[in-house]
Write a structure and sequence with these properties.
The chain contains ten helices and 22 strands. The chain is an alpha+beta fold. The protein has a six-stranded mixed sheet, sandwiched between helices. Strands 13, 16, 17, 20, 21 and 22 form a six-stranded mixed sheet that branches. A hairpin with a 3-residue loop joins strand 20 and strand 21.
Length: about 425
Protein backbone atom coordinates (compact mmCIF):
# COMPACT_ATOMS: atom_id res chain seq x y z
CA UNK A 1 0.00 0.00 0.00
CA UNK A 2 1.23 3.50 -0.88
CA UNK A 3 -0.29 6.79 0.36
CA UNK A 4 0.63 9.86 -1.68
CA UNK A 5 -0.32 13.49 -1.05
CA UNK A 6 -1.73 15.33 -4.04
CA UNK A 7 -2.52 18.94 -4.80
CA UNK A 8 -4.50 18.24 -7.96
CA UNK A 9 -5.81 14.78 -8.78
CA UNK A 10 -8.29 16.09 -11.33
CA UNK A 11 -5.88 17.18 -14.07
CA UNK A 12 -6.95 15.96 -17.49
CA UNK A 13 -5.45 12.67 -18.61
CA UNK A 14 -5.81 13.41 -22.30
CA UNK A 15 -3.55 16.46 -22.51
CA UNK A 16 -4.04 20.13 -23.26
CA UNK A 17 -3.78 19.58 -27.02
CA UNK A 18 -6.84 17.31 -27.16
CA UNK A 19 -8.81 19.65 -24.90
CA UNK A 20 -7.99 22.57 -27.20
CA UNK A 21 -8.93 20.59 -30.32
CA UNK A 22 -12.32 19.67 -28.87
CA UNK A 23 -12.97 23.22 -27.65
CA UNK A 24 -12.37 24.56 -31.18
CA UNK A 25 -14.40 21.83 -32.93
CA UNK A 26 -17.92 22.49 -34.23
CA UNK A 27 -20.84 20.87 -32.37
CA UNK A 28 -21.84 17.36 -33.43
CA UNK A 29 -24.93 17.29 -31.20
CA UNK A 30 -26.83 20.33 -29.97
CA UNK A 31 -29.88 20.08 -27.71
CA UNK A 32 -31.93 23.12 -26.71
CA UNK A 33 -34.79 23.15 -24.16
CA UNK A 34 -35.68 19.48 -24.69
CA UNK A 35 -38.72 18.29 -22.75
CA UNK A 36 -40.47 14.92 -22.75
CA UNK A 37 -43.36 13.72 -20.56
CA UNK A 38 -45.24 10.44 -20.27
CA UNK A 39 -48.84 9.90 -19.18
CA UNK A 40 -49.28 7.18 -16.55
CA UNK A 41 -52.91 5.91 -16.38
CA UNK A 42 -54.34 5.34 -12.91
CA UNK A 43 -56.41 2.36 -14.09
CA UNK A 44 -55.92 0.03 -17.03
CA UNK A 45 -58.63 -2.26 -18.38
CA UNK A 46 -56.95 -5.17 -20.11
CA UNK A 47 -60.06 -7.10 -21.21
CA UNK A 48 -63.33 -6.31 -22.99
CA UNK A 49 -65.26 -7.55 -19.97
CA UNK A 50 -63.58 -5.01 -17.71
CA UNK A 51 -64.36 -2.20 -20.16
CA UNK A 52 -68.00 -3.35 -20.41
CA UNK A 53 -68.35 -3.32 -16.62
CA UNK A 54 -66.90 0.20 -16.42
CA UNK A 55 -68.21 1.95 -19.57
CA UNK A 56 -68.24 5.45 -18.08
CA UNK A 57 -65.13 5.26 -15.95
CA UNK A 58 -63.03 8.41 -16.21
CA UNK A 59 -59.58 7.88 -17.71
CA UNK A 60 -57.39 9.71 -15.24
CA UNK A 61 -53.62 9.74 -15.31
CA UNK A 62 -50.49 11.20 -13.79
CA UNK A 63 -47.81 13.00 -15.79
CA UNK A 64 -44.18 11.90 -15.48
CA UNK A 65 -41.81 14.65 -16.63
CA UNK A 66 -38.91 12.52 -17.86
CA UNK A 67 -36.95 15.46 -19.34
CA UNK A 68 -37.43 19.11 -18.41
CA UNK A 69 -35.76 21.87 -20.48
CA UNK A 70 -32.54 19.95 -21.07
CA UNK A 71 -29.88 21.88 -23.00
CA UNK A 72 -26.30 20.89 -23.82
CA UNK A 73 -23.82 20.69 -26.68
CA UNK A 74 -21.36 17.94 -27.62
CA UNK A 75 -18.40 18.88 -29.80
CA UNK A 76 -17.23 16.81 -32.76
CA UNK A 77 -14.78 14.15 -31.57
CA UNK A 78 -15.84 14.46 -27.93
CA UNK A 79 -16.45 11.49 -25.62
CA UNK A 80 -19.41 12.73 -23.55
CA UNK A 81 -20.68 10.92 -20.46
CA UNK A 82 -24.29 11.06 -19.26
CA UNK A 83 -24.81 9.93 -15.66
CA UNK A 84 -27.58 9.95 -13.10
CA UNK A 85 -29.60 7.71 -10.85
CA UNK A 86 -32.20 5.31 -12.23
CA UNK A 87 -35.18 7.32 -13.44
CA UNK A 88 -33.21 10.52 -13.98
CA UNK A 89 -33.94 10.59 -17.74
CA UNK A 90 -30.72 9.24 -19.26
CA UNK A 91 -32.22 6.54 -21.50
CA UNK A 92 -35.14 8.79 -22.46
CA UNK A 93 -32.65 11.42 -23.60
CA UNK A 94 -30.79 8.96 -25.82
CA UNK A 95 -34.06 7.67 -27.31
CA UNK A 96 -35.08 11.25 -28.15
CA UNK A 97 -31.70 11.81 -29.82
CA UNK A 98 -32.14 8.58 -31.80
CA UNK A 99 -35.67 9.51 -32.90
CA UNK A 100 -37.29 6.59 -31.05
CA UNK A 101 -39.26 9.01 -28.86
CA UNK A 102 -40.85 12.17 -30.20
CA UNK A 103 -39.97 15.18 -28.06
CA UNK A 104 -42.72 17.39 -26.63
CA UNK A 105 -40.69 20.59 -26.84
CA UNK A 106 -37.22 21.70 -27.83
CA UNK A 107 -34.73 21.37 -30.66
CA UNK A 108 -32.28 18.53 -31.43
CA UNK A 109 -29.55 19.02 -34.03
CA UNK A 110 -27.37 16.00 -34.88
CA UNK A 111 -24.75 16.63 -37.56
CA UNK A 112 -23.65 13.48 -39.33
CA UNK A 113 -24.68 9.83 -39.41
CA UNK A 114 -25.95 8.60 -36.05
CA UNK A 115 -25.69 5.03 -34.76
CA UNK A 116 -27.71 4.17 -31.62
CA UNK A 117 -26.93 1.23 -29.37
CA UNK A 118 -29.35 1.99 -26.58
CA UNK A 119 -31.56 -1.01 -25.90
CA UNK A 120 -31.20 -4.74 -26.31
CA UNK A 121 -33.03 -5.92 -29.42
CA UNK A 122 -33.90 -2.52 -30.91
CA UNK A 123 -33.74 -2.71 -34.70
CA UNK A 124 -33.59 -6.52 -34.75
CA UNK A 125 -36.29 -8.97 -35.87
CA UNK A 126 -36.22 -12.07 -33.62
CA UNK A 127 -37.73 -14.24 -36.37
CA UNK A 128 -34.89 -13.51 -38.80
CA UNK A 129 -31.38 -14.94 -38.75
CA UNK A 130 -28.36 -12.98 -37.63
CA UNK A 131 -27.27 -12.81 -41.27
CA UNK A 132 -30.48 -11.04 -42.33
CA UNK A 133 -30.60 -8.84 -39.23
CA UNK A 134 -27.06 -7.57 -39.73
CA UNK A 135 -27.71 -6.49 -43.31
CA UNK A 136 -31.09 -4.89 -42.50
CA UNK A 137 -29.75 -3.10 -39.42
CA UNK A 138 -26.69 -1.79 -41.27
CA UNK A 139 -28.94 -0.43 -44.04
CA UNK A 140 -31.15 1.24 -41.41
CA UNK A 141 -28.02 2.92 -40.01
CA UNK A 142 -27.16 4.43 -43.39
CA UNK A 143 -25.10 1.90 -45.35
CA UNK A 144 -26.01 0.82 -48.86
CA UNK A 145 -26.99 -2.82 -49.37
CA UNK A 146 -23.69 -3.43 -51.17
CA UNK A 147 -21.66 -1.84 -48.36
CA UNK A 148 -23.64 -3.73 -45.71
CA UNK A 149 -22.87 -7.05 -47.38
CA UNK A 150 -19.21 -6.09 -47.81
CA UNK A 151 -18.84 -5.41 -44.09
CA UNK A 152 -20.85 -8.45 -43.01
CA UNK A 153 -17.82 -10.65 -42.30
CA UNK A 154 -16.12 -7.94 -40.21
CA UNK A 155 -19.30 -7.40 -38.17
CA UNK A 156 -19.74 -11.10 -37.44
CA UNK A 157 -16.03 -11.55 -36.68
CA UNK A 158 -16.04 -8.67 -34.18
CA UNK A 159 -19.10 -10.19 -32.48
CA UNK A 160 -17.40 -13.62 -32.50
CA UNK A 161 -20.59 -15.27 -33.79
CA UNK A 162 -19.31 -17.00 -36.94
CA UNK A 163 -20.91 -20.31 -35.94
CA UNK A 164 -24.33 -18.78 -35.32
CA UNK A 165 -24.98 -16.53 -38.34
CA UNK A 166 -27.85 -18.70 -39.62
CA UNK A 167 -29.53 -19.05 -36.24
CA UNK A 168 -32.69 -17.02 -35.63
CA UNK A 169 -32.21 -14.19 -33.19
CA UNK A 170 -34.96 -15.45 -30.88
CA UNK A 171 -32.64 -18.36 -30.11
CA UNK A 172 -29.76 -16.05 -29.16
CA UNK A 173 -28.83 -15.42 -25.53
CA UNK A 174 -28.94 -11.81 -24.32
CA UNK A 175 -25.13 -11.71 -24.38
CA UNK A 176 -24.99 -12.89 -28.00
CA UNK A 177 -27.59 -10.29 -29.02
CA UNK A 178 -25.59 -7.54 -27.28
CA UNK A 179 -22.43 -8.55 -29.11
CA UNK A 180 -24.22 -8.52 -32.46
CA UNK A 181 -25.90 -5.17 -31.85
CA UNK A 182 -22.75 -3.45 -30.65
CA UNK A 183 -20.74 -4.88 -33.53
CA UNK A 184 -23.18 -3.47 -36.09
CA UNK A 185 -23.24 -0.09 -34.32
CA UNK A 186 -19.45 0.36 -34.35
CA UNK A 187 -18.78 -1.10 -37.80
CA UNK A 188 -21.01 1.28 -39.77
CA UNK A 189 -18.54 4.16 -39.26
CA UNK A 190 -21.15 6.52 -37.84
CA UNK A 191 -20.15 10.08 -36.95
CA UNK A 192 -22.11 9.97 -33.67
CA UNK A 193 -22.51 6.85 -31.52
CA UNK A 194 -25.09 6.59 -28.73
CA UNK A 195 -24.30 3.91 -26.14
CA UNK A 196 -26.54 3.00 -23.21
CA UNK A 197 -25.39 0.72 -20.41
CA UNK A 198 -26.52 -2.42 -22.20
CA UNK A 199 -22.82 -3.37 -22.34
CA UNK A 200 -23.27 -4.69 -18.81
CA UNK A 201 -25.04 -7.71 -20.32
CA UNK A 202 -22.00 -8.91 -22.27
CA UNK A 203 -19.35 -11.23 -20.84
CA UNK A 204 -16.04 -9.97 -19.46
CA UNK A 205 -14.08 -10.74 -22.62
CA UNK A 206 -16.46 -8.83 -24.88
CA UNK A 207 -16.74 -5.89 -22.48
CA UNK A 208 -12.96 -5.54 -22.62
CA UNK A 209 -13.16 -5.63 -26.41
CA UNK A 210 -15.81 -2.89 -26.39
CA UNK A 211 -13.69 -0.57 -24.28
CA UNK A 212 -10.73 -1.16 -26.58
CA UNK A 213 -13.03 -0.19 -29.44
CA UNK A 214 -13.93 3.01 -27.58
CA UNK A 215 -10.22 3.86 -27.43
CA UNK A 216 -9.91 3.31 -31.19
CA UNK A 217 -12.98 5.41 -31.97
CA UNK A 218 -11.79 8.24 -29.77
CA UNK A 219 -8.48 8.19 -31.63
CA UNK A 220 -10.38 8.47 -34.93
CA UNK A 221 -12.24 11.56 -33.71
CA UNK A 222 -15.70 9.99 -33.44
CA UNK A 223 -18.33 11.55 -31.21
CA UNK A 224 -19.65 9.23 -28.49
CA UNK A 225 -22.46 9.82 -25.99
CA UNK A 226 -22.09 7.26 -23.23
CA UNK A 227 -24.71 6.53 -20.55
CA UNK A 228 -23.39 4.66 -17.52
CA UNK A 229 -23.49 4.26 -13.73
CA UNK A 230 -19.78 3.41 -13.65
CA UNK A 231 -17.84 6.49 -12.58
CA UNK A 232 -14.56 4.73 -13.30
CA UNK A 233 -15.48 4.49 -16.98
CA UNK A 234 -16.60 8.13 -16.99
CA UNK A 235 -13.26 9.30 -15.64
CA UNK A 236 -11.29 6.92 -17.85
CA UNK A 237 -12.90 7.73 -21.20
CA UNK A 238 -14.91 10.95 -21.11
CA UNK A 239 -13.74 14.45 -21.99
CA UNK A 240 -16.79 15.94 -20.26
CA UNK A 241 -19.85 14.57 -18.49
CA UNK A 242 -23.37 15.65 -17.58
CA UNK A 243 -25.34 14.77 -14.45
CA UNK A 244 -29.11 14.40 -14.78
CA UNK A 245 -31.49 14.44 -11.80
CA UNK A 246 -35.29 14.26 -12.13
CA UNK A 247 -35.04 15.04 -15.84
CA UNK A 248 -32.99 18.21 -15.39
CA UNK A 249 -29.30 19.01 -15.93
CA UNK A 250 -27.88 19.20 -12.42
CA UNK A 251 -24.27 19.73 -13.50
CA UNK A 252 -22.03 19.61 -16.59
CA UNK A 253 -18.25 19.72 -16.64
CA UNK A 254 -15.00 17.75 -16.22
CA UNK A 255 -15.60 14.02 -15.67
CA UNK A 256 -13.90 13.84 -12.27
CA UNK A 257 -16.03 16.69 -10.91
CA UNK A 258 -19.22 15.13 -12.30
CA UNK A 259 -18.24 11.78 -10.78
CA UNK A 260 -17.83 13.51 -7.41
CA UNK A 261 -21.24 15.23 -7.73
CA UNK A 262 -22.84 11.94 -8.77
CA UNK A 263 -21.49 10.26 -5.64
CA UNK A 264 -22.73 13.14 -3.48
CA UNK A 265 -26.21 12.97 -4.99
CA UNK A 266 -26.39 9.18 -5.07
CA UNK A 267 -24.97 8.39 -1.64
CA UNK A 268 -26.07 11.57 0.12
CA UNK A 269 -29.65 10.34 -0.29
CA UNK A 270 -28.89 7.39 1.99
CA UNK A 271 -28.18 9.66 4.95
CA UNK A 272 -31.11 11.96 4.14
CA UNK A 273 -33.52 9.03 4.11
CA UNK A 274 -32.35 7.97 7.58
CA UNK A 275 -31.02 4.53 6.74
CA UNK A 276 -27.69 5.54 8.31
CA UNK A 277 -26.94 7.56 11.43
CA UNK A 278 -26.88 11.26 10.57
CA UNK A 279 -23.34 12.53 10.05
CA UNK A 280 -21.87 9.05 9.94
CA UNK A 281 -20.61 9.10 6.34
CA UNK A 282 -18.45 11.86 4.90
CA UNK A 283 -18.34 14.12 7.96
CA UNK A 284 -14.71 13.40 8.94
CA UNK A 285 -13.25 12.11 5.68
CA UNK A 286 -14.67 11.78 2.19
CA UNK A 287 -14.04 9.23 -0.55
CA UNK A 288 -14.03 11.19 -3.78
CA UNK A 289 -13.69 8.22 -6.14
CA UNK A 290 -11.81 4.98 -6.82
CA UNK A 291 -10.21 3.61 -9.98
CA UNK A 292 -7.72 1.01 -11.22
CA UNK A 293 -4.37 1.57 -12.94
CA UNK A 294 -1.96 -0.69 -14.79
CA UNK A 295 1.74 -1.04 -14.03
CA UNK A 296 2.49 2.07 -16.12
CA UNK A 297 0.09 4.23 -14.09
CA UNK A 298 -2.58 4.45 -16.82
CA UNK A 299 -6.20 4.25 -15.72
CA UNK A 300 -7.92 1.06 -16.87
CA UNK A 301 -11.38 -0.49 -16.81
CA UNK A 302 -10.28 -3.88 -18.17
CA UNK A 303 -7.19 -6.05 -18.07
CA UNK A 304 -5.95 -9.60 -18.53
CA UNK A 305 -5.73 -11.88 -15.52
CA UNK A 306 -2.19 -12.09 -14.15
CA UNK A 307 -1.28 -8.48 -14.94
CA UNK A 308 -0.22 -5.99 -12.28
CA UNK A 309 -3.16 -3.96 -10.98
CA UNK A 310 -3.28 -0.89 -8.74
CA UNK A 311 -6.52 0.11 -6.97
CA UNK A 312 -6.48 3.83 -6.12
CA UNK A 313 -8.74 5.63 -3.63
CA UNK A 314 -8.94 9.43 -3.86
CA UNK A 315 -9.57 10.68 -0.31
CA UNK A 316 -10.20 14.13 1.20
CA UNK A 317 -9.98 14.78 4.96
CA UNK A 318 -12.31 17.31 6.60
CA UNK A 319 -10.71 16.91 10.04
CA UNK A 320 -7.46 15.47 11.36
CA UNK A 321 -7.36 11.69 11.76
CA UNK A 322 -4.85 9.22 13.19
CA UNK A 323 -4.29 5.91 11.43
CA UNK A 324 -7.48 5.58 9.37
CA UNK A 325 -8.14 2.19 7.79
CA UNK A 326 -8.45 2.23 3.99
CA UNK A 327 -9.97 -0.62 1.99
CA UNK A 328 -11.34 -1.53 -1.43
CA UNK A 329 -13.94 -4.30 -1.72
CA UNK A 330 -14.08 -6.26 -5.00
CA UNK A 331 -17.38 -8.00 -5.84
CA UNK A 332 -18.05 -10.15 -8.89
CA UNK A 333 -21.11 -10.12 -11.15
CA UNK A 334 -23.16 -12.22 -8.69
CA UNK A 335 -22.35 -9.81 -5.82
CA UNK A 336 -19.92 -12.17 -4.12
CA UNK A 337 -17.08 -10.44 -2.26
CA UNK A 338 -13.99 -12.16 -3.62
CA UNK A 339 -11.21 -9.82 -2.50
CA UNK A 340 -10.65 -6.99 -0.04
CA UNK A 341 -7.53 -4.84 -0.29
CA UNK A 342 -7.05 -3.29 3.16
CA UNK A 343 -4.45 -1.22 4.97
CA UNK A 344 -4.92 -3.40 8.08
CA UNK A 345 -2.34 -5.76 6.60
CA UNK A 346 0.21 -2.95 6.27
CA UNK A 347 0.27 -1.50 9.79
CA UNK A 348 -0.43 2.08 10.80
CA UNK A 349 -1.20 4.61 8.07
CA UNK A 350 -0.13 7.77 9.95
CA UNK A 351 -1.72 11.12 10.69
CA UNK A 352 -3.69 13.15 8.16
CA UNK A 353 -4.58 16.82 8.62
CA UNK A 354 -7.85 18.60 7.88
CA UNK A 355 -7.99 19.77 4.26
CA UNK A 356 -5.45 17.20 3.14
CA UNK A 357 -6.13 15.16 0.00
CA UNK A 358 -4.38 11.85 -0.66
CA UNK A 359 -4.33 8.94 -3.08
CA UNK A 360 -4.14 5.49 -1.47
CA UNK A 361 -2.75 2.79 -3.77
CA UNK A 362 -3.08 -0.98 -3.34
CA UNK A 363 -0.86 -2.90 -5.78
CA UNK A 364 -1.37 -6.60 -6.51
CA UNK A 365 -1.02 -9.25 -9.19
CA UNK A 366 -4.54 -9.67 -10.55
CA UNK A 367 -5.50 -13.31 -9.99
CA UNK A 368 -9.26 -12.73 -10.13
CA UNK A 369 -11.34 -15.02 -12.33
CA UNK A 370 -12.75 -13.57 -15.58
CA UNK A 371 -15.76 -11.43 -14.63
CA UNK A 372 -17.03 -7.88 -14.20
CA UNK A 373 -16.06 -6.58 -10.76
CA UNK A 374 -17.41 -3.58 -8.88
CA UNK A 375 -15.19 -1.61 -6.50
CA UNK A 376 -16.43 -0.25 -3.17
CA UNK A 377 -13.94 2.00 -1.30
CA UNK A 378 -14.28 2.35 2.48
CA UNK A 379 -12.54 4.33 5.24
CA UNK A 380 -12.83 3.79 8.98
CA UNK A 381 -11.08 4.06 12.35
CA UNK A 382 -10.67 1.94 15.48
CA UNK A 383 -11.82 3.83 18.63
CA UNK A 384 -11.84 1.20 20.25
CA UNK A 385 -14.27 -0.66 17.96
CA UNK A 386 -14.23 -0.25 14.22
CA UNK A 387 -16.29 2.73 13.01
CA UNK A 388 -16.86 3.33 9.31
CA UNK A 389 -16.44 6.96 8.26
CA UNK A 390 -17.23 6.83 4.55
CA UNK A 391 -18.19 4.23 1.97
CA UNK A 392 -19.20 4.46 -1.69
CA UNK A 393 -20.94 1.36 -3.03
CA UNK A 394 -19.95 0.03 -6.46
CA UNK A 395 -18.61 3.32 -7.83
CA UNK A 396 -16.17 1.80 -10.29
CA UNK A 397 -15.73 -1.29 -12.45
CA UNK A 398 -12.88 -3.58 -13.41
CA UNK A 399 -13.34 -6.20 -16.13
CA UNK A 400 -10.98 -9.16 -15.91
CA UNK A 401 -10.43 -11.37 -18.94
CA UNK A 402 -8.37 -14.49 -19.52
CA UNK A 403 -7.52 -16.79 -22.40
CA UNK A 404 -8.09 -19.81 -20.16
CA UNK A 405 -10.20 -20.18 -17.03
CA UNK A 406 -10.02 -23.26 -14.83
CA UNK A 407 -12.93 -22.40 -12.53
CA UNK A 408 -13.28 -20.83 -9.10
CA UNK A 409 -13.27 -17.15 -8.16
CA UNK A 410 -9.50 -16.67 -7.95
CA UNK A 411 -6.49 -18.13 -9.73
CA UNK A 412 -3.84 -19.00 -7.13
CA UNK A 413 -0.42 -19.87 -8.62
CA UNK A 414 0.66 -23.42 -7.84
CA UNK A 415 3.65 -25.65 -8.43
CA UNK A 416 3.11 -29.06 -10.01
CA UNK A 417 5.04 -32.17 -9.12
CA UNK A 418 4.23 -35.71 -10.28
CA UNK A 419 6.09 -38.63 -8.67
CA UNK A 420 5.79 -42.27 -9.56
CA UNK A 421 5.36 -44.69 -6.67
Amino acid sequence: MVVSRTLDATATRFGAQRAQQIAQAPPAVAVQDLSKAFRLPHQRYSTLKERALHPFAARTHDVLQALDNVSFEVKRGEFFGIVGRNGSGKSTLLKCLAGIYAMDEGVIDVRGRLSPFIELGVGFNPDLTARDNVVINAIMLGLSRKEARRRFDDIIAFAELEEFVDLKLKNYSSGMAVRLGFSVAVQVDADVLLVDEVLAVGDASFQRKCFEEFERMRGEGRTILFVTHDMGSVERFCDRAMLLEHGEVLDLGPPDEIARRYNEVNFGKVVEEGSLPAGMYGSDVRVRTVWCEDSAGERIVAQQRGERCVAVIDVEFTRALENPVFAVVFRNDVRLTVFVATSLLHGQTGRFEAGERVNVRFSFDNRLAPSRYTLTPTIGVWDPDYRQLDRKEDVSTLIVDSVMHTGGVVDIPTQLEVTRQ
